[in-house]
Amino acid sequence: MSKPETSPTGWLEARLPIVSAFRREYVDFAMPRNLNYLWNFGAFATIALALLIVSGIFLALNYTPSVAEAFNSIETIDRHVSSGWLVRAIHMGGVSMLFAALYVHMARSLYYGSYKTPRELLWLTGLGLFILVMIAAFAGYILPWGQMSYWGATVVINAMNAVPVIGPALASWLLGGEGLGSVALHRFYVLHFVTAFSIIGVIVLHVAALHVVGSNNPTGVEPETSDDVVPFHPYYTTKDGLGLCLFLMVYAVLIFFAPDLLTLANNYAMANPLVTPGDITPEWYFAPFYGILRAVPFKLGGLLLSAGSVAVLFAVPWLDRSPVKSARFRPVLRWALLGLFIAFIALGVAGMHKPTGLWLGISRLSVAYYYAYFLLLLPFLPRFEKTRPVPASLRGENR
Amino acid sequence: MKRVLLIGLMALPLTAQASTPEQRGFQVYRQVCATCHSLDHVTFADLSGIGLAVADIKAYAASHQVPDGVDDDGDPKTRPARLSDSIGSPYPSEAMARLANHGDTPPDFSRLAMTEEGGAGRIETILRSYEPKPAGVVLSAGSYYNTAFAQKHIGMPPPLHDGQVTYADGTKATLPQMAQDVGAFLDWVAHPHRSARSHTGLAVLGYLAGLTVLLALLKHRVWKRVKENRQ
């Protein structure tokens, strides 16, 4: 393996062994042989993030963060900058694709127990990434200075003000004193790309943690023999590559043929502090959390439950008491988990509607189930649930 | 060959004159809507996107005066608009626009077909839904009876009537025709890159589809090894 130091690769190897590290981590790296296509979504999220960062840099070249010019500069990008409409479409569509990939990625972790020993830190760094992505998305959405930018930010700042003790101080620190104006916009602009670049750093931690403990797999049984694993290349490079092509096709359909499907049209009207939109709704990826916020009649309670819905995820590795990882072998949990996914989607749909009548009922029921799943079912279900026999090896289920 | 060329040349002016709904809509905008409504984010040059000749656009731009800083005495100057200027507002300021319109500003047209729920079709419906006020209905000053709204009135006086403009292509300028053309124009204004978008999209999808097939074959070949030695 070691080459004489006189050759260029040997010289580099002796000083910074990136070539051998790359070979070890991305070519020869042992992967469970039985991963299904749900294991592609981490790669999808990475690619979506890379496209967001590259397109974001090009948008930043033409964007002006001031109340007077922000909306105009976005219109200029969309109408007059060469291929500006394409770069902006990639950026706007990329957010939806990133969140979609992240939600599937997280749902897969919950289903196959990928958060359990020894992968707790993988789960925690992943949640850290999710929060950073949410902050970046929130700050980024304010930048075009449309009606929804302005009023969405207003809702969040009002919510922040409702937090006892630190809330008002935090809000005024973020706003820079003069209400939601140019100073605040400039801060959100800086916050947007500071979080965006921080995400890259946390991804490095997330992937490093993955490469220490290795991937989980659909059986939840750790690979033991060399028959259980295949090298990352060419097996998962081809499988991820194929999945990625399909992911990019969905992305392309979204941005080229349905660019207005997931966006809110009133954000094409410039922010007007004197005109409140009829109903302030967030983009779809925040809708479930907004649904929780609006399900509770008093502001602080809604805020606590909404923030708590993410906070509770950090405790999941310790809330789940079952030694069985994969929901394949947990007949009750798999249905309970399906219920969680339905509740989360229902919260999202309810979040896009005014919180009255049926929608309020649905969102309250869903919040209750969401918390019951994590705080009651995960810790106490293992006492009653009769699990199916777990195979001795990860190839077991196909024998 | 010469004959074909000749016929082609003769046909050319005809096709150049046959105008599209967007071009007719622009004509209505220019002669009617532009009296009150602005196009803040659209430049004169953008109009080439609906196939207008550059000379015509230049002439249209030159008929607008735009602010040009101050002269040596500190007095504001104006100059004829250039292609790169925005078409802008007919009013010198928002206050003037409000003064002329019972305290409201006529909405800007740049994204109206997007922000108006129902899009261009909705705009067309509004333009066609003016009716004489039924007896007994009382409207405040500056309100006009229009059945397109739940509250049955709108602040804009009926802008269109039959034969108001003379279309260059000879199309009869009935009210429904003009409403439809204005809708088409505003739809283009709100989505100026729609055709480029779908062309690029088809190319991207075609490329990705080809790549998908190749990768599917490759992946199948690679994974066959694992499946074979598993048995």
Detailed description of the structure:
The complex is a heterodimer of chains A (399) and B (231). The model of chain A has no long low-confidence stretch (mean pLDDT 94). Chain A has helices spanning 8-15, 18-27, 41-60, 70-79, 84-112, 120-142, 147-161, 166-175, 182-213, 232-257, 287-295, 299-314, 316-319, 331-351, 357-384; strands at 30-32, 229-231. The radius of gyration of chain A is 23 Å and the shape is globular. In chain A, 65% of the residues lie in helices and 2% in strands. In chain A, strands 1-2 form a two-stranded antiparallel sheet. With 399 residues, chain A is mostly helical. Chain A has two domains: 27-276, Up-down Bundle (Cytochrome Bc1 Complex, Chain C), CATH 1.20.810; 281-384, Helix Hairpins (Orthogonal Bundle). In chain A, helix 5 packs across helix 10 (232-257), helix 6 (120-142) packs across helix 7 and helix 14 packs antiparallel against helix 15 (357-384). By secondary structure, chain B is mostly helical. Chain B has three domains: 20-38 and 103-192, Cytochrome Bc1 Complex, Chain D, domain 2, CATH 1.10.760; 39-88, no CATH class; 204-231, no CATH class. Chain B contains eight helices and six strands, in the order ααβαβββαααββαα. Chain B has helices at 2-17, 21-31, 54-62, 94-100, 112-115, 119-128, 175-190, 194-230; strands at residues 39-43, 65-70, 76-80, 86-88, 144-145, 153-154. In chain B, strand 2 (65-70) and strand 3 (76-80) form a beta hairpin. In chain B, helix 2 crosses helix 7 (175-190) and helix 6 packs antiparallel against helix 7 (175-190). The A-B interface holds A 33, 72, 75-76, 78-80, 85-86, 89, 230, 234-235, 238-239, 241-242, 245-246, 248-249, 252-253, 255-257, 259-260, 265-266, 268-269, 395 and B 41-43, 46, 110-111, 114-115, 117, 190, 192-193, 196-198, 200-202, 204-205, 208-209, 211-212, 215-216, 218-219, 222-223, 226, 230.
Largest sheet of chain A: 2 strands, antiparallel
Biggest sheet strand line-up of chain B: 1-4
Count the domains of chain B.
3
Class by helix and strand content of chain B?
A: mainly alpha
* Helix percent band of chain B: 40-55%
Cα end-to-end separation of chain A = 38 Å
Counting H and I runs of at least 4 residues, what is the number of helices of chain A? 15
The shape of chain A, in one word, is globular
The fourth-level CATH homologous superfamily of the largest domain in chain A is: Cytochrome Bc1 Complex, Chain C
Number of strands of chain B: 6
C-alpha Rg of chain A (nearest Å): 23 Å
> Structural class of the secondary structure composition of chain A?
mainly alpha
- The strand order across the widest sheet of chain A is 1-2
